[in-house]
Specification:
The complex is a heterodimer of chains A (about 140) and B (about 250). Chain A is of the alpha+beta class. Chain A is built from one helix and eight strands. The termini of chain A are far apart. The mean pLDDT of chain A is about 90. In chain B, a hairpin with a 3-residue loop joins strand 10 and strand 11. Chain B is elongated and about 110 Å long. The C terminus of chain B is likely disordered. The chains are: A alpha+beta (about 140), B mainly beta (about 250). At the A-B interface, strand 4, strand 5, strand 7 and strand 8 of A face strand 1, strand 5, strand 6, strand 12 and strand 13 of B.
Chain lengths: ~140, ~250
Amino acid sequence: MKTEKVIISFIAVVIGIFAAATAFYFYQTTKVIPESETKTLSLSPSPKPSPKATIFLTLDTPKDEEVTDKKTVSVSGTTTPETVVIVSANTNDQVLTPSSNGKFSTTVILENGQNELTILAIAPGGEEEKVIKTVTVSTETF
Amino acid sequence: MKKYIILFIFLFTTFSARVYALTPTEVPEKTPAESQINKLKDRIASRVAELKLVERRGIIGTVDEVTNTQITLTDLQNAVRFVDVDELTKFSSPSAKGTFGISDIAKGQKLGVLGLYNKQSRRLLARFVDVLTIPKIFHGVVTGVASDTFSLNVTTDKEKFLVDVQTTTKTSSYTNGGGLVKSGFSKIKPGQRIMIAGFYDIKDKTKIIPTRIIIFPELPKNPTITIPASQEVKVASASATPNAKKTNN
């Protein structure tokens, strides 16, 4: 008797769930959204891919915001071959041509205190890539 | 009754927390020497951690805001930097006639700060703050030359300005074959790529007072710089003093 009751209850629950789901489905399919509440979504065509960079510049040394007690610093890095690299410090400039693999290196004379080093690579087509570093010369201990 | 017992057992096994028996470990009493060694170890460890966290750094930036204990700067990478100032911080300015302190620092000044940078808080505890007078580097194209006033019109990718060439301005020229050689004002032609190291005029921010000039006759201009066709051969109308005695370098 008890087993029968349990089975009947289970079947009743399943039928109930099925009936509720069917009713909800019909409610959703027959639902009408007024035009005032509809929004038009316009999709713009996919953006154009950015043009491939013709030049790059990465510096190995010096480290930005570096503090040194020496009056010179080595500036080295890599850029696109066939570019011209201009290294400008507070009081002097140097123009370099990198090797065939794009490596370049030079020694820059520094002033006491903060030095702003601007390194600019110029491609044969005129495109530029710039990196700015700060190097401080100080013998102070703190 | 049976039902309640089953329910009780179910709830008890599901929601009860486990408790472990704990027997206290006997800690041997430390001798005074041992406790001192431990204290020293702790102090050394904390000092090592502190040294790893802090490093000496020097930055350059333009002042955004100043208070009695803090300077807010925009550095060369356009990042906002917070500089803490205390009683040990020393201030200097090349133009200062008497004493120079934090109250003399104004918005817009270019500062060099040397101090201890905390990697965790990303703040710089300043030890030396100096007002800087270092030239700004411009790369652009010559759009006009005025030989009578020794001035140039130059356009960069961001701005246009008048370059008032001085007798002290060092002019050089770079070519692939000849390298970097000394040159003069007469060699500068409209349309040439130019590098200028100089300062903005105090009264006129559209004018540059150059200390160094390099021209690159063989290199094309930056393609991002757009020059109106009418400007390309236009002769600059300089506002520089025409009577000033100037010579070519």
